[in-house]
Structures are given as C-alpha cells and as structure tokens.
UniProtKB/TrEMBL annotation, chains A, B, C, D:
Alphabetized NCBIfam families for the sequence: PRK06557.1
Residue stretches making up the Class II aldolase/adducin N-terminal domain: 11-189
Keywords annotated in UniProt: Metal-binding, Zinc
Name listed for the protein in its UniProt record: L-ribulose-5-phosphate 4-epimerase
Pfam families: Aldolase_II
Any GO MF annotation of the entry: metal ion binding
Catalytic activity: L-ribulose 5-phosphate = D-xylulose 5-phosphate
PANTHER family per the UniProt record, alphabetical: FUCULOSE PHOSPHATE ALDOLASE, L-RIBULOSE-5-PHOSPHATE 4-EPIMERASE SGBE
InterPro entries, alphabetized: Aldolase_class_II_sugar_metab, Aldolase_II/adducin_N, Aldolase_II/adducin_N_sf
Cellular component GO terms, alphabetical: cytosol
Cofactor: Zn(2+)
Family: Belongs to the aldolase class II family. AraD/FucA subfamily.
Amino acid sequence: MNETAYAQVRVDLVDLHRVLVQSELVVWTAGNVSAKVGDGHFLIKPSGVAYERLTPESMVLCDLDGHPVEAGLKPSSDVFAHAYVYRHRPDVGGVAHTHSTYATAWAARNEPIPCVLTAMADEFGGEIPVGPFALIGGDDIGRGIVETLAGSRSPAVLLRNHGVFTVGASARDAVKAAVMCEDVARTVHIARQLGEPLPMEQGDVDRLYDRYQNVYGQ
Amino acid sequence: MNETAYAQVRVDLVDLHRVLVQSELVVWTAGNVSAKVGDGHFLIKPSGVAYERLTPESMVLCDLDGHPVEAGLKPSSDVFAHAYVYRHRPDVGGVAHTHSTYATAWAARNEPIPCVLTAMADEFGGEIPVGPFALIGGDDIGRGIVETLAGSRSPAVLLRNHGVFTVGASARDAVKAAVMCEDVARTVHIARQLGEPLPMEQGDVDRLYDRYQNVYGQ
Amino acid sequence: MNETAYAQVRVDLVDLHRVLVQSELVVWTAGNVSAKVGDGHFLIKPSGVAYERLTPESMVLCDLDGHPVEAGLKPSSDVFAHAYVYRHRPDVGGVAHTHSTYATAWAARNEPIPCVLTAMADEFGGEIPVGPFALIGGDDIGRGIVETLAGSRSPAVLLRNHGVFTVGASARDAVKAAVMCEDVARTVHIARQLGEPLPMEQGDVDRLYDRYQNVYGQ
Amino acid sequence: MNETAYAQVRVDLVDLHRVLVQSELVVWTAGNVSAKVGDGHFLIKPSGVAYERLTPESMVLCDLDGHPVEAGLKPSSDVFAHAYVYRHRPDVGGVAHTHSTYATAWAARNEPIPCVLTAMADEFGGEIPVGPFALIGGDDIGRGIVETLAGSRSPAVLLRNHGVFTVGASARDAVKAAVMCEDVARTVHIARQLGEPLPMEQGDVDRLYDRYQNVYGQ
C-alpha cells in the first residue's frame, strides 16, 4: 500500500466509526475501529475524541506493538488489544470494539450467545463465545480475544464484564460483525425473556454458514 | 406494464428498502423487498448490497423461477422464496422479508403472536402464524410461507428460527405488513413480560378486520 | 376564529403529527391528532394518509358529530371518538390518539399505570386509568374516554386492548400528554421488570401536580 | 470570565441540551443543564421551553441562590437544586438533570446500580448511588445530591422516584456522565433480566477508574 491508499483507509475509518454511532453500538467515545495498512502497521481511532470530530488525519498510525509512529494524537486506549490481534492473526485486516448494550449484557453474565437464528449461523457459524476478564493496557485483552476465537468460527468475541471485539478481513467486515453481533444478541435475549428458543441442528448451522460465506453477495 | 412502469417500480423499491431501514426492521443487508411486474417477472434487491447504495438500476429483474433475465447483479439470496410465492399466489404483487427483532424472537420460540390488540385485528385478522424451519436456496422457504398463510387471514408469517415474510397486493402493502408485524410483535411481547394480555373475542376481531379492510383509508 | 386562524391550526397539526413520528409513538398511519376550531368544529388527520404526505390542506374540517363539512378527504377512522370528546368536554381543545408501545402493553393487560415517578405526578396527578374495550365507528370509544377521565386528573386514558387517547386545552397539550404517557409507561414497566417501584405518598403527588400545573413554565 | 466567555458558554449549553435529546435522555422539556460562570453565577435552561427553541440568549443567568440576575425568562424549575450543588461543591462547574428511562427505573425501585462493567468502573469508580426522595422547589433535592455523592466517586446520583443528577468539572463532563449513566443503567438492567451479572473485584474497579481518569484521552 502507498500513501494514497492510507488516505482512503483513513476516510473509510471515519465512515466506519459513523456506522458504529448510527447503529447505536457506542455512546460518547466508547468504541473504536482499526485497519491494518501494509504488513506492519495499522490505523486506529485517537483516544477520547468525540465521533463527530473524527477526521481522516486524526486516525493514528501505529506499529504492531501498538506504538504510534508519528507525532500527533494518542491512539485509542485499546490500542494494545488491537496490536496483539494483528500480531497473532495475520489473516485479520480490521478490528472493531464496542460496548453494545445486549452483547455486553451477555458478557456481564459470562454467557455465550447460543446459535438459534439462521442469521447467526450465516455470520457466526455457531455460538458467540465469551473470553476472560482482562484489564486494559497490556496484552491480556488481546490474548483473551485470540485464544477465545481460536476455538470458534465466530468473528466476534465477548469479554467478561466488558464488551465486544470483532475481527474481519477488512475493517468493514469487522464493523459488520459488530453490527450483527448486537442484532443477534438482542434478538436472542428478547426470545429468551418469554421462554426458550428452539435449538438448531448443527448440520443446518454448517450448511447456512457455508452458503453465506461462499455464495452470498456479489 | 411497459418499460416506464418498471422504472417507477424500481424507484419505489429503493424507497421501500429505505422504509425498512428507517423502521429499524433490518441491519446491514439482511432484508429485502420484491415487486411483481407484468405477469411473469418480478424485481428484487441485489444480494449483499448495502441499503444506502441501492439504486433503481440495481434492482434485479427475475422470472417466476427466480432466475435473473438480464446480465448484471445477482438477486437476493432469498429470490427463490419470493419466486415460489409469486408462482403459487397470483393475488400477491409484493413480498417483503426481514429479521425484525421482536417478530424474530417469537419465531425463535416457534410461537405465533396472539391477536390481543385492535391494531392487530385490523391488519392481520387474527394471530400471526409460524411456519416450519427451512433452509435457504430452494423451494422449502417459499412452500413454508404459502402453506402457512393458506390457513390464515394474516399477510405476515414467521418462519421458525429465521424471521418474517409478508405479502401484499403491492410491494408497499407487503412493507406495511412488515412494519405492523414488528410493531404488534413488540407490543404483545412487552405486554406479556408483566402478565397476560386480555383475550379479544373472535366476533370483535372479525368486525375490526372487516372494517379496516373495507372502510379505512381514502 | 377566522379563516387565517384555521390556516395556522392546519400548519400546527402537520407539525404535531411529525412530533408523534419523531417521538416514535406511531407507525405507518396508526395515530391521529385533532384541534377544535371555533365553537362547533374541529380539524383532524385524513384517514390512512402517510404522515410524510400530510399537508395543511389535507386536514379535514368536521362538525362536532364527526361529519366532514367540506368535500375532500375522509377524516380519520377515529373521528367519532374525537367528536364525542369535544361534545362532552367543552374544556378540551385538542385530542391525540396513538398505539404507543409501552402504554398499549399496559392497556393489553387492562392495568392502569401506577404513579411512582415525580414526572408522572407532575403531568398526570396520579395513575393513568384504563377504560373499557370498545369498537371503533360509533360513540363507544368516545364514551369510554370521557367516562374514564371523569374520575381522574389524568389527561391520558388507556383503552383496553387498544391504545391511548389524550386530551388537552390545545392539540399541542394533548400531544405532550401522549409523549409523556409513553415515557412514564416505559419507565414504570422497566422498573417493574426487576422488582416493585416504591410508592409515592398522595400528599407528595398532590404537591407536585399543583406546582407543575401552576408554577412551571413561562 | 468576561462577557465573551459567557456567550460561548451559552452556545455550548444549547449544544449540550441537543446532546440530551439526541441521546434520548429527555422528552418534551423534562431535563436541563447548567454551567457555572465566574465565581458566583451560573447559566441554566429556561423553564418549560422546548429544546428545539432554545437559543444562547434564552439561557438564564442566576446567582448561587438560584435567583435570576437579569429580566427575562424564568429559569428551570430545578434551579434551586443546581444552585445548592454549586454552593456546596466549588469543584463542580456543570450540572445535568434527566429522567432517562433505565436510570429512572433503578431510582423508582430505590436501588443503586452495581458496578459490573469495565465502562462503569472507568467513569463512575463504583456503583451509582441512590439519594432520598425530595420535593422540588427548595434545598431538599440539592442536599440529597450533595450528601449522597459525598460517599462516592460517582459523578451521577439517582434520586428516589425521580431521576438522575450528574456533576462535572464542566457542563460537558456532566452531560457525559448523564449519557454514560443511562448507558450502564440499561446494560446492567438487561444483563439482570436473564440472570446475575458477575461481580468485579474492587481492586480491578480501582485500577480501571485510576487509568480512565488519568491516562485516557488526549
């Protein structure tokens, strides 16, 4: 990627943060998206900056240890979690993080979201797992994400008492997973309020996942 | 219908997909509307295209077997369900599909929505039924829709572990049914959270349905 | 009032229907507002017209029996309920009707909303009562509204299995009551989901109501 | 501060009331924000004025006893609560008040919101406490706020059967606390609907609070 490509990624990241806001996945400054650029860097939201004030230039370029490589704004407080994911998952091109309401409610109870909807089989290929509680600022959150996703087809992971991290081939895919994670977290929650959702057979989950990953879209 | 009429239908379909978004019935690309044109074709949303990028030209013209009749974008992954409905219900001019939250929660539990609101009697003439679980990609979903609606006055049907399909004389009527389906699914759900809604007498349901279908509007 | 005053009332009514939409109290065409003009007439929403298509000219002028006095659009299907209220409550200058979600959920269970919030004491002066089930099209709904409100300070009444009617000195006051009715219906519902709200003393309810009605505002 | 500074504060206050509306923390006119200016005054919303009609000039300048110091609009009905807070908490530069739904639901049950989310530890440093029931119009509400916050790191306090008051170094900080209070009130409520959230260890709460207050942001 060259300088110009980074410019486009910066524009896309502003737009993707706007999607988080419009999808009501974040309040105030509590959520962030990053995108890998080139082999050894990623761009991420600056810390504590209001979404409506984000500009392409405000996105912070970091190396894969999570350190900014240019003078300017400080990166998101979650930068080390993003960095850990990029170091250990070379297939990942984008990471998103939210405290979206329903997904975080499952995380507060330390419960995975069971796969009882066709839309959930499509995108997540099974349940959305919960990783451990971890403090911000080091490798603990990143390790929790990577280890929990290792046993799953899901691009989303809940972290206990915390919120949601999602990964994707691109930042847009990660944001899509964050949007759909909240959607299924909400629907399954509401279904369970008045009884038990019917289970889906694993074979059906597999067939739906395979079709959505390989046939759906243009 | 001629070429010009199709152009208007395409514009209307873009607008109706916008209604799905504004009514919060869909997230990302998970929902679609189609409209029958002429005797043997229908127009439908392209697969996996974001709602804000839909244009009149992007709508895909298909025959009643669900196959596109022009080069261009692939139709919605749900195209065969729409096609089945048009083949077996010549009175239907429009079909809508969503995973709207509350309706899908009833579907996840395999429960019909009981008719306990006057607005529900008006539009649905009784309970909103639930059809079987069916995999996407063939005639199974379409057959589930048509067979379940056969025993009902409702223009909406829930599909188990999946979501909602609605039908109407026009695409706009189908979207109206989708909007009202979610509205009553939500209100009845919330009513049941703190007790049991009072039942309505069948005679009253019949009188309300008759009046709304025959007197209401201009 | 003269011709010019009616023009302003028509503009205000379009705006007040927009408030119903923005406050998420209505979907599709299911809600309406009217305003008394002069001693013997009122203006009301036309039947089945989408909110975004309402114009000042589309509002229907009716006499106090609910009959339109000009050629043009048909009035709201609820016109006879509005007319009954104006005939029996000369102090009322505006009426609003919605099926707003949480209020209608209380109505579906035939439960009044208990007064457990200071904001509810301010506006409603006590519980929001529930009136009887009644069919649309004659005097039954209007009579249910007037008789139920007779024993109450509340400008809002729930009708069993149906929805909400509110009254006010003006149409704007009626819409305000509809907005606040849904707000307190929602808050009290949510409070009760996890336990019992604490009761308020009648003396405190009286003091809050008196202050809000007589001191609040400009 | 000089005349020009007040002009900017007035503009900011209009903007912050807009944030309350956009964050869905208030309906109609039920919520207000104030900002201290100079040592002995504060600016506050006028009573009963719709949010969309607020202008910088409409904000009411009051002394620390809550009395307006200029001819013009009457201040918010909650002015004496704001004044009491400023008199007893010289560190406070802004106060916000809402009846936001989920927080008010906890208040209706007289229950503090337990600290079971990292985002809650960040902003509130522990549970969000509940103060006593108090009538509007004198010092009682202000005293309830100040005394309840005295034993807490939280910038937010629930008042029984009433709503939320928040404080901050600036009006913007107070509004931020109001936004995050409703967000965590909602998430913890929803978590508890289907079980018990896992507790967090006090040491972790302390570490998160310390980091967020001292490291987060630019």
